[in-house]
Structure formats: structure tokens, C-alpha cells
Specification:
By secondary structure, the protein is an alpha/beta fold. It has two domains: 20-285, Rossmann fold (3-Layer(aba) Sandwich); 298-403, Anticodon-binding domain of a subclass of class I aminoacyl-tRNA synthetases (Four Helix Bundle (Hemerythrin (Met), subunit A)), CATH 1.20.120.640. 43% of the residues lie in helices and 15% in strands. The protein has helices spanning 53-71, 87-96, 100-117, 133-145, 174-183, 223-235, 249-264, 296-301, 306-314, 326-344, 351-363, 368-382, 391-403, and strands at residues 20-23, 28-31, 37-42, 75-82, 125-128, 149-152, 155-158, 200-204, 219-221, 239-245, 270-276, 279-281, 284-285, 322-323. The strands form four sheets. It has a five-stranded parallel beta sheet, sandwiched between helices. Helix 6 (223-235) packs across helix 7 (249-264) and helix 10 packs antiparallel against helix 13 (391-403). The longest helix is centred in the first third of the chain and has 19 residues, at 53-71. The model has no long low-confidence stretch (mean pLDDT 97). Bound molecules: 5'-O-(N-(L-cysteinyl)-sulfamoyl)adenosine and zinc ion. The site of zinc ion has 4 residues, from loops. Zinc ion binds next to loops.
Length: 407
């Protein structure tokens, strides 16, 4: 699929430090140690109602990582999928009398426009589930050859317990896994399954639903195998970061890790599993199913500066759950105005010092709020300290290159 245009990335003097990130699997902050090229897979949208502030916050979090790695001297190979065939998309299309393909195309296009407006660096590969069906089928055949696949009626399931490490991404007790699996697209109680937690790999064609021909019989992919097939195809095994919102840790990333490990008979599928917190509205997780949404496109239509939307998001640490409010946006507008004024003035307190501080905070588990506070402090100091004549342009470039804020 086409992705979107790249934002302007000003060059900065020197390089940033190695990036440390909180890894869900080990429940600790780890130092990422990519080879020359850092490899990252971030789960993409299911395009039936794009792009709310929660989505934007998650993709901006991984955009910070992309920028921090680039600043540390790495090339970044970034793969993202689009779940352009899945139950929620079909349900939405049916409920609104639209063709599922039209819904997917329209919402994906809106997502691209929103990501470009928010200065998110596009992925290297932007891959739809539908276009990846041949790879998905090939991976399921490989699992079959390993004797790990069984049928329930005409659907195919994976014997997940064959991976002795199953459970080590989200580290949840079994009862909790079963409960969450049922909430997030799984079918723990389907009769005929060997284990409640076995994931669906291939769903046989249902009357009136889209399906594709395959050796497995006509049907469509299960959810988790989609990201495994796309990740292995484009990044290879044991890439540096598997990312998404915290609602993907289980079952999606847990199931994906086991599937990848079984396919490659190796470990780990990803070196770190990194999860962004959930953005809430009116006390509940912002979600398409609940309908409590603030859309990036609506804010933009109402004349909001995308840089203010991005700053409002960056004021929250990516790992925390937080509540979107009008006040965060008002505060971000105010901050943006102060920053622009200070950058325009050129002379100010040392631009070099603030650059180092932004780099340090970003490399420390993407601590954007601390980076914003460092810029605020520089702005305040620059009201009286004019010792550095080009501080404004250096700080503006640092903010643009590292935080992605066009100030
Ligand atoms: N297509 C799958 C991943 S393969 C999917 O989860 N799509 S999604 O559209 O439901 O979500 C896209 C991304 O946004 C996921 O990483 C999800 O964790 C994240 N996300 C969804 N809602 C929120 C929220 N309220 N706050 C933060 N991130 C969210
Ligand atoms: Zn995914």
C-alpha cells in the first residue's frame, strides 16, 4: 500500500545516545541495541473509523522512537500493517450498508492524511492484510508441516501450547488470559478446540463474506497470523521492537510471538515488546466500539493546528493511561505560541544545552513530557539570557527533528 509523505527532518549537530525502552515482556527498562539498521513493527489500524486521539498517541509514541533511533545514527526499517479485512470492519460495513472495501479505503486514506499532518514519519513498508494473504497462507502451511495445526469444522487453529514460552509477553495468569481473549476477538469457548487459548489461523468462507482461495480451502486470515506473516516477510526474525497500544499485549502480541517462535523454531520473535498507554475520554478508553471519540480530522477541520494536537499528546508520557480534555489542547496552543515567539527571536540561552536535554529525555524511555519541560525552561531563561545568538534556530530544529513539532 502507499504510505504518506515524509516530514521535514532538519539535520542536528552530533548524535543522540542509545535508546532505552520499557519492555513489557521483561517488565524492565532495556537498552535497545539495534544493528546498523533498527527494525520495528508497529501494528496498524483496523480501518473502520480512523483516526482518534488514542491512535494518534500510539503512533506518535513510536514516531519518537523512530526519531530517537535515527538521531542515534541508525537507519530504521519500520513496518506497519493495515488490518483491511477483519470482523469489526465487516460488521461496520454491514451496519451502515457500505462495501467493506470502500470503508477500508476511505478510512485508511484519512489515517494517512492525519499521520502526515501530525508529522509522523511514514513506515518503510505499509502493508494491507489483503495484499499479504499469500504470505499468511504460506506461514500457515509451514505451521501445518510442523504438525501444529488442527481443524474445527473447516477453520484452522494453532496448538499454541507447543510454544513453551507462550505467556511470556504479557505474563498473565491463565484465567485472565481466557477472559481477555474472549473480550478481544478470541473464541475460548468454541467446542472442538484443543485448548481455549488456541488462536484461529484461517477462517473458512462464511456465506456472504469475502474470502480468498487457498490450499486450506477458501477463507480469510485470522488476526494474529497477519502481523506475524507481514513482520517476518519484511523485517525477518527477532526484530528490535514490536509495538502497539497496551490493549495489544494480550492476546495479539502474545499469540504473534508464539506463532513466530514456532515458525522459526527460535526465540525471541521480537527483542522488546513496547506498549503505549490508553487514551481515555469521559472516563473510558477511547474506542471505536464505545464511540467516545475525538477525531484528529475533526480537530483539523475546525482549524486546529496539528502541531498543537501533537504537543497536547506529547505532554503525556506514552506509557501512562491518560484522559483527553479540551484543557490539554488549550495548554498546548499556549505552549506552541510561547515556543514560536522564542524561536523567532533567535538569540537566547544555550541551544546546545537544550538539544542535549531533549536527547537525554527522549532516550530515557521516550520521556517527552520531560523534553517539553526542558524546552519550556529554555524559553523562560531566554527571556533574559541572550548569550547564544543562534539558539532559536537550533532549538527549533531540535524540536522539529526529535519531537516532530513544527514550531
Ligand atoms: N489492526 C489492529 C492491530 S494489528 C488494531 O488493533 N487496530 S486498531 O485500529 O484497533 O488500533 C490501532 C492502534 O491504536 C493499536 O496499537 C491500538 O492499541 C491503538 N489504540 C486503540 N485505541 C487506543 C486508545 N484509546 N489509546 C491509545 N491507543 C489506542
Ligand atoms: Zn497487529
Amino acid at each position: 500500500m502507499e504510505s504518506w509523505r515524509s516530514p521535514n527532518l532538519p539535520a542536528l549537530p552530533g548524535t543522540g545516545p542509545a535508546v532505552r525502552l520499557f519492555d513489557t515482556s521483561s517488565q524492565s527498562v532495556v537498552t535497545t541495541k539495534p544493528e546498523t539498521t533498527a527494525r520495528m513493527y508497529v501494528c496498524g489500524i483496523t480501518p473502520y473509523d480512523a483516526t482518534h486521539i488514542g491512535h494518534a498517541a500510539t503512533y506518535i509514541a513510536f514516531d519518537l522512537l523512530n526519531r530517537a533511533w535515527g538521531d542515534a545514527g541508525h537507519a530504521v526499517h519500520y513496518t506497519q500493517n493495515v488490518t483491511d479485512i477483519d470482523d469489526p470492519l465487516l460488521e461496520r460495513a454491514a451496519a451502515t450498508g457500505q462495501d467493506w472495501r470502500d470503508v477500508a479505503m476511505r478510512e485508511t486514506e484519512l489515517f494517512r492524511t492525519d499521520m502526515a499532518a501530525l508529522n509522523v514519519i511514514p513506515p518503510t513498508d505499509y502493508i494491507g492484510a489483503v495484499e499479504a494473504i499469500p504470505e499468511v497462507v504460506r506461514r500457515i502451511e509451514d505451521l501445518q508441516a510442523l504438525g501444529l495445526v488442527y481443524r474445527v469444522d473447516d477453520d484452522f487453529y494453532l496448538d499454541i501450547s507447543a510454544d513453551e514460552r507462550f505467556g511470556s509477553v504479557a505474563n498473565l495468569p491463565r484465567e485472565e488470559m481466557i477472559a481477555i481473549f474472549a473480550e478481544r476477538g478470541g473464541d475460548p469457548h468454541r467446542p472442538g478446540k484443543r485448548d481455549a487459548l488456541d488462536p484461529l489461523l484461517w477462517m473458512a468462507a462464511r456465506p456472504g463474506e469475502p474470502h480468498w482461495p487457498a490450499s486450506l480451502g477458501a477463507g480469510r486470515p485470522g488476526w494474529h497470523i497477519e502481523c506475524v506473516a507481514i513482520g517476518l516477510e519484511h523485517l525477518g526474525f527477532s526484530f528490535d521492537v514490536q509495538g502497539g497500544g497496551s490493549d495489544l499485549a494480550f492476546p495479539h502480541h502474545e499469540m504473534g510471538a508464539s506463532q513466530g517462535q514456532l515458525l522459526c523454531q527460535d526465540w525471541p520473535f521480537a527483542k522488546a515488546y513496547v506498549h503505549a498507554g490508553m487514551v481515555h475520554l469521559d472516563g473510558h478508553k477511547m474506542s471505536k466500539s464505545r464511540g467516545n471519540l475525538v477525531f484528529v480530522s475533526k480537530l483539523r477541520e475546525s482549524g486546529e493546528d496539528p502541531a498543537a494536537i501533537r504537543l497536547a499528546i506529547l505532554a503525556h508520557h506514552y506509557r501512562n493511561d491518560w484522559e483527553w480534555t479540551q484543557e490539554c489542547l488549550v495548554a498546548a496552543r499556549h505552549r506552541l505560541k510561547l515556543w514560536r515567539h522564542a524561536f523567532d527571536a533567535q538569540a537566547g540561552a544555550s541551544g546546545h544545552d537544550v538539544l542535549i536535554q531533549i536527547r537525554t529525555h527522549l532516550s530515557n524511555d521516550l520521556d517527552a513530557p520531560a523534553a517539553l519541560a526542558a524546552v519550556d525552561a529554555w524559553v523562560a531563561q531566554s527571556a533574559t539570557d541572550k548569550s547564544d545568538e543562534s539558539a532559536g534556530s537550533l532549538t527549533r530544529n531540535a524540536v522539529m527533528a526529535l519531537l516532530g513539532v513544527h514550531a
